[in-house]
Design goal:
CATH topology of the largest domain: Chorismate lyase
CATH superfamily of the largest domain: Chorismate lyase-like
Largest sheet: 6 strands, antiparallel
Distance between the termini: 71 Å
CATH class of the largest domain: Alpha Beta
CATH architecture of the largest domain: 3-Layer(aba) Sandwich
Length: 249
């Protein structure tokens, strides 16, 4: 009896702060509260959750630091919109890239599945367990009648649960994520590759053609959202960076 009581006392206690934090995060990531949604006033939220205004203020302040919320003086608190300009290398909308070329864009979805992560995907995500399911998507972006970019992507259903029900034949995955998920950090890897197999075939190219490969991982509050690899024929895409002189150097 004493041992059982000791174990019960040692169990971690969930505070009101943690409970409310989780509830509001879930409402945002599930899009129950979509980007741009205005939250009730702080006093109303505190009353609804049965806590002090100070506790609610700490919850909202933390969610603001994590990038979920934006607080505007005299206006209120809003669910953050996606921050496409926040990364060092901008996360581009491929449809907009194609439109800038004066060509018609379309996305052909060639694969969609809920499955366990492949070994290379699991390794890239920090040894993701095989027991976890991911939403796997593959397709080709077209510029006019020519393949423009091959895309292979996995999405985390835990951080983007609404993605499971989206028809990605009507909207490209990247465009949907930019619009719907207020990510807080991103990592890019860029390299030259020789396209082979399925990628070369989907791009309408012979195996071995030089390509530019961009792999990107995005996160929200420390949880991964998506891992995507986009492969462009080397003669059809370039990256441009602008620099300014350092006034101190």
């Amino acid at each position: 009896m004493t041992e059982i009581a000791t174990q019960a006392q040692a169990a971690p206690r969930i505070t009101h702060h943690d409970r409310i934090l989780t509830e509001i995060r879930d409402r945002i990531t599930s899009r129950d509260w979509p980007p741009g949604f205005q939250l009730p006033f702080e006093t109303q939220l505190a009353e609804a959750h049965g806590v002090s205004r100070m506790t609610m203020n700490k919850v909202l302040a933390q969610l603001t630091r994590e990038g979920f919320l934006v607080r505007r003086k005299k206006l209120g608190t809003f669910v953050a919109r996606p921050m496409a300009q926040a990364a060092v290398l901008e996360i581009a909308d491929i449809a907009a890239e194609v439109a800038a070329l004066g060509l018609e864009w379309r996305f052909d979805l060639t694969e969609r599945a809920l499955r366990a992560p492949l070994p290379d995907e699991a390794q890239a995500m920090g040894d993701l367990p095989q027991s976890r399911q991911v939403l796997a998507l593959r397709g080709v972006h077209f510029a006019g009648d020519q393949p423009f970019c091959h895309e292979a992507r996995i999405i985390n259903p835990d951080t983007a649960p609404a993605a499971v029900d989206v028809d990605f034949r009507q909207i490209a995955p990247g465009a949907w994520l930019l619009r719907e998920i207020p990510w807080t950090s991103a990592q890019h890897r860029i390299r030259a590759v020789a396209a082979s197999g399925m990628v070369a075939r989907d791009l309408g190219q012979v195996s071995g053609i030089p390509c530019l490969e961009i792999t990107r991982r995005t996160e929200i509050a420390g949880q991964w959202v998506t891992l995507v690899t986009q492969t462009y024929p080397g003669d059809r895409h370039e990256l441009v960076a602008e620099f300014a002189p350092n006034p101190e150097g």
